[in-house]
Each structure stands twice: as C-alpha cells, then as structure tokens.
Amino acid sequence: MIRRLPLVVGIAGGSLLLANRLAFSPELLASQSRSDALGVILSALLILTGLLWQQIQPLPPKSVEMAGEQGLEMLPELPEILKLELGWATSSLLKASPARSVVIWAGGHIVMRRGVLASADFKPGTAVEPGSILKRVLTQQKSVYLVDLKLFPARAEFGYVPENSQCLLCQPVGD
Fold this sequence. Notes:
- There is one protein chain.
- With 175 residues, this protein is α+β, with helices and mostly antiparallel strands.
- It has four helices and five strands; from the N terminus they run H-H-E-H-E-E-H-E-E.
- Strands 1-3-2 form a three-stranded antiparallel sheet, covered by helices on one side. It has a two-stranded antiparallel ribbon with strand order 4-5.
- Helix 1 packs antiparallel against helix 2 (30-55).
- The protein starts with a helix and ends in a 5-residue tail after the last strand.
C-alpha cells in the first residue's frame, strides 16, 4: 500500500494541475506558468518514485538441496573432551547459521565432518593434500570466503565438501 502512495499522489496531482489549467485559467500569467512547471516536476518525480518502488521486490535467497547424507564422523582416537567440544561447536554453528556442512582439517588429514557429508572417500583420518587456497589460509592465518563456488576453478581442491556447495568459508582455528 505504501509503495503505491507516490504513484497515486503523483497521478492525482498531475491530473488536478491539468484540470485547473483547462477549466479555470483562460489566460496564462507568468506566476501561473512557474507554479504549473513546479507542480508538473513534483508530479513527475512522485510518479517515477512510485514506479521505481513497484520494481523493487526482495529476492528470496537461492538455496539448493545439498547432495549427501546427514551425519557426524570424528577420528576415534580423539580425546573425549575434544570430541565433546567439537561436537558442541559444530552443532551450534550448523543450527545458528546457514551452514550445512562443517569439515575440520588438521595436520594433513580430516579430523571431523558434520552436517551434509560428501563422498565416503573422505572419512576422518583421510590424508588430504592442501590446495592453493587452503595453503594460503594456513600460511596467512586469515579466512577466505568463496562466494560463488561454481565460478572458482580451484573448487576441485575441496572434494571433501558436498559437490553442489554454493559457497565455502576456510577459517583457521588455531595452530
């Protein structure tokens, strides 16, 4: 309703200006022409604003159904306290964000996977050679966010995330 208000007011104002000019102003004075010009400009701006507001509609975020099975996998040799902490942290992350899959990598191998799991080839304990992006994250200790993963040729280095992942955050979590 509010988005249509400028359009309605602009059309009404322009119509009233035209009716006033045709019906009640047989001879044109300089002061009338200036006020008419200002009224036409204001009506046109209101109409344009109303048309622009009609075009603006929020787009729903595009999401896909992730390819893979839900699950939780950890290295069996992890200490129980570490399993508990990692379980709590990843559960919180998956519930409080749009993330659907979490992979923790340390010391050259996968330590934990949770959420939508990718190929069974990447079980915890599987050695993974870091690619160029992961090496940069590890050396600089700064996160890297790949917004549209399908546009990056380096996405092949992330075979341990679901195949149709839309974006990826590589976050260092310590030494």
